[in-house]
Design brief:
alpha/beta; 11 helices; binds 5'-O-[(R)-(carboxyoxy)(hydroxy)phosphoryl]adenosine; binds zinc ion
Length: about 350
């Protein structure tokens, strides 16, 4: 799609699909003027995972403050904003509703256009922010707490899912394994850190391949293998080296994500490959993907870690391209917890 830009478009973006209340001001889809994130992690840590009811309530408490701060940091008022973009799915319904209601209220009161954005399309679009040269087509691995998808971005707003997880998402596996070895929530960053002290080849955990669906992922077998290993050690009185478990588990996840991605990239002859989502902030995964892309002569793109985990700047990036394609939502916009990728219009 040819984006013909008549003037600068400034978007106020809102994200509240899980446990981050976030607002950002983004110009022309790629320039972040502010990116405010209020994380609820400390609150959910007490329960070992996100508690939906608590998440919704905390979003209500924080949303106005976060939006005000985003405008203030960008040195703007609502008069300077051209459109309001908001995540309306997928995610936790109660959490999504808070952002959607806030965005609708602002859009209604200011008579500005409302653009509903798909959360995963937001994650993918995080890559546009720091890579001003990145244009579709490209292949993107989205690995987050709820998704593990290999997506072909054929054009702005045109997505084709090549592979997906059959069970657990990669981030979910990180969180479950972290809990099993007593690291707490959220597991990803903790395993990432502990794995640096361990031997990634100490324990041979399985790398799942799905018969007849080589592009799909499966992480539940790996998760069970780790749990079985821990049980076995406990029963036999063997002391567990947690760093080795973390490193070996992480190695198995990275192996699968990297090899699948490169196989698909080769088959489709892609020249550009990007990663996105919370797991994309994993330091070892980033290193391995970079190396693999180099070997395959593919240009590698990745957002900074702060733009990999949930934020509103990525929603502003995706929202801009949706806005430019004429996407507008009405006052009947609702939260759609299981919104499918490419179905946000
Ligand atoms: O994208 P995200 O912030 O939220 C969702 O849309 O799900 O992803 C959160 C997930 C969590 O499962 C978290 O454990 C994982 O991303 N994560 C990581 C790292 N940082 C966050 N996984 C591995 N290594 C990390 N450094
Ligand atoms: Zn996310």
């Amino acid at each position: 799609m040819e984006i013909t830009q008549k003037r600068e478009i400034t978007i106020l973006a809102i994200e509240s699909s899980c446990d981050e209340t976030a607002a950002a001001v983004v110009r022309n889809g790629r320039e972040v003027l502010s990116n405010i994130i209020s994380s609820q992690i400390e609150l959910h840590k007490l329960f070992g995972g996100v508690v939906p009811e608590i998440a919704s309530r905390k979003h209500i408490e924080k949303i106005n403050q976060v939006i005000e701060e985003a405008l203030k940091t960008a040195e703007m008022t609502l008069d300077d904003i051209d459109a309001i973009a908001v995540t309306y799915g997928p995610g936790l319904v109660g959490a999504l509703l808070v952002g959607v209601a806030a965005a609708k209220a602002i859009a209604y009161a200011t008579k500005k256009p409302l653009v509903g954005v798909h959360h995963i399309e937001g994650h993918i679009s995080a890559n546009y922010i720091e890579h001003k040269d990145l244009e579709p087509p490209f292949l993107c691995l989205v690995a987050s707490g709820g998704h593990s998808h290999l997506v072909m971005v054929n054009d702005y707003g045109s997505y084709q899912i090549i592979g997906r997880t059959r069970d657990d998402a990669a981030g979910e596996a990180f969180d479950k394994v972290a809990r099993a070895i007593g690291l707490g929530y959220p597991g990803g960053p903790k395993i990432d850190k502990l794995a640096k002290e361990g031997n990634p080849h100490a324990i041979e955990f399985p790398r799942a391949k799905i018969a007849g669906a080589p592009d799909d992922f499966s992480f539940s077998g790996l998760k069970s293998a780790v749990l079985n290993y821990l049980n076995h050690c406990e029963m036999k009185g063997i002391e567990v080296n947690k760093a080795d478990v973390a490193a070996s588990f992480q190695e198995a996840v990275i192996d699968v994500l990297t090899s699948h991605s490169m196989e698909v990239a080769k088959r489709y002859g892609v020249k550009k490959f990007a990663i996105a989502g919370g797991v994309a902030s994993n330091s070892s995964l980033r290193g391995r993907m970079e190396q693999a892309c180099k070997e395959h002569n593919i240009t590698f793109y990745h957002p900074s870690p702060i733009l990999c985990t949930d934020n509103a700047a990525m929603i502003g990036a995706a929202g801009y391209y949706d806005y430019m394609r004429g996407i507008r939502h009405g006052w009947d916009l609702n939260a759609v917890p299981n919104l499918k990728i490419g179905e946000s219009k």
